[in-house]
Design goal:
The chain is an alpha/beta fold. The protein folds into two domains: 144 residues, Response regulator (Rossmann fold, 3-Layer(aba) Sandwich); 102 residues, OB fold (Dihydrolipoamide Acetyltransferase, E2P) (Beta Barrel). The protein is built from nine helices and 15 strands. A hairpin with a 2-residue loop joins strand 6 and strand 7. It holds the Pfam family Response_reg. Keywords: DNA-binding, Phosphoprotein. It comes from Paracidobacterium acidisoli.
């Protein structure tokens, strides 16, 4: 049996890549592609679909708006697709059928499709009323209003994904367009620049002490001044990190060190 599939994404390259990956699965038939939320709502309200790949972040009508406007009775099994870490975490929280983070990887897509097939076979793929309410009430503005900062990261740990609480992160290291999260001897990569990430973390807990590093304030054991321009800090685990003059000033401003 072929699954009539609709893909929704405002990025043409993302739609093209997903289409190419889905073409490798013989039971998946992509019947249409929508480039925005309005097109998706119109299509879903007029034609039957067995499976929906839905981008979360789209202008004007986003993925969660599509969910709300289509309604539970018309919503097919849905896999959220997002480039944003926080949206993936929220989709995970409400037990969505599945989620994919961009760029979509073939092996991760295969796992998602296997989960969908299993749930369709078990007649449990459609969202229940409780789950649908969670999508609307938990993924939209109330969750965002409760805290503007990230509280968890969804990271890969071998063949599985785990939710990593920000409090467990000792420090963060820049790696070009990625960042490396350091915690308890482990390293996890996330697809965020250090500048973007620093804006998403609570400044009461995390401070960017150097252009290439962010530190958890609760993990600082010692602070050293090394001349008027820079210095260093030592973490609870003994790791030493360089600190710029601007980083030292930030620590001073939040009252963690004296002038």
């Amino acid at each position: 049996m072929s699954l009539r599939t609709l893909t929704v994404d405002d990025e043409p390259l993302a739609r093209q890549l997903l289409g190419l990956l889905l073409a490798e699965h013989k039971d998946i038939q992509v019947v249409a592609e929508c480039e925005n939320g309005r097109e998706a709502v119109s299509y879903l309200q007029s034609k039957p679909v067995d499976l929906l790949f839905l981008d979360v972040q789209m202008p004007q009508v986003g993925g969660f708006d599509v969910v709300e406007q289509v309604g539970l009775q018309h919503l097919p099994p849905t896999i959220f697709v997002t480039a944003y870490q926080e949206h993936a975490v929220r989709a995970f929280d409400v037990h969505a059928v599945d989620y994919l983070t961009k760029p979509v990887k073939p092996e991760r897509l295969t796992i998602a499709l296997e989960r969908v097939r299993e749930k369709i076979a078990a007649r449990t793929a459609l969202l229940t009323q409780e789950q649908f309410s969670a999508v609307l009430n938990g993924l939209r503005s109330p969750a965002e209003q409760s805290s503007p900062y990230l509280s968890r990261f969804l990271v890969k740990d071998g063949e599985k994904d785990i939710l990593l609480s920000v409090e467990k992160i000792e420090w963060i290291e820049a790696a070009e367009y990625y960042c490396c999260l350091h915690t308890n001897g482990h390293r996890y990569m996330v697809r965020e620049t250090i500048t973007d990430l620093s804006n998403k973390l609570d400044p009461k807990l995390f401070v960017r002490i150097h252009r290439s590093s962010i530190v958890n304030l609760n993990q600082i054991r010692e602070i050293y001044r090394e001349g008027p321009l820079d210095g260093s800090i030592v973490l609870m685990n003994g790791k030493t990190l360089r600190m710029s003059k601007a980083g030292r000033q930030k620590l001073y401003e939040i009252g963690r060190v004296s002038s």
